[in-house]
Amino acid sequence: MKAREVIAYMESLRNNEQRRVLMRFFKTGPGEYGEGDEFLGLKVPQTREVVRAVAKDIALEEVPELLLSKWHEVRLCGLLILVSKFERLSTKRLMHDKEAIRGRDEILTMYLQYAERANNWDLVDLSAPKILGHWLLLPTALGSGRRYKQQVLDDLAKSDNLWRQRMSIVCTWKTSWAGDPSWCLHYAEMHLHHPHDLMHKAVGWMLREMGKRCGMELLRDFLRQHVHEMPRTTLRYAIEKMSEEERQQWITEE
User: Fold this and answer.
1) Which of the 8 DSSP states describes residue 240?
2) pLDDT band at residue 185, thresholds of 50, 70 and 90?
3) What is the DSSP letter of 71?
């Protein structure tokens, strides 16, 4: 299947009433973070159904046409196709397979090349953990181990693009759930003073997930070091799953 066929089919599903709802929800007005984004009005399950139908058959070289689309849902479709292809190459059986490694690296490279096309929080959050975060846990032929992988994330974190920055922290959901808190702690600290509320939420969310999977004492240690300098939103997200009594203690400490 060709990208243009996927786009034509998705355009045929256009829903103008839902489109208006989504454009408000994703802040597409002047001066808002999603300014100028265009929607077809498709719900995420509809886009996922398209992905299920075409992901196996569409060639990787067709995906950039989807990522370059003006339509938000078409870009999401392209990103979820990359996720699907990456996951099929990441099974235990294929973890060390040379062809699978080459394929994963190719997908990761494409994802980074078009990272700015994931230009809203949902596009980042539905793709970064399952591509970038998963790649951090797997063998790669792109560079020499962890140092190279950290450089990839550093480049995203130090970018002047909000969505690349968000990728560098949200991808750590996957590493934390695999039992490695180091990625989350490093990039949470790096982004602690970020000016944007979307990053405050992302950092707090990732800290919360890290605590759930890697140990609440690690989260508490981070809070003890940084509670007095954390944005209030970050703190509230980070402590969300704690008891009411403990949450109040941290808020009082702020």
Assistant:
1) T
2) very high
3) B
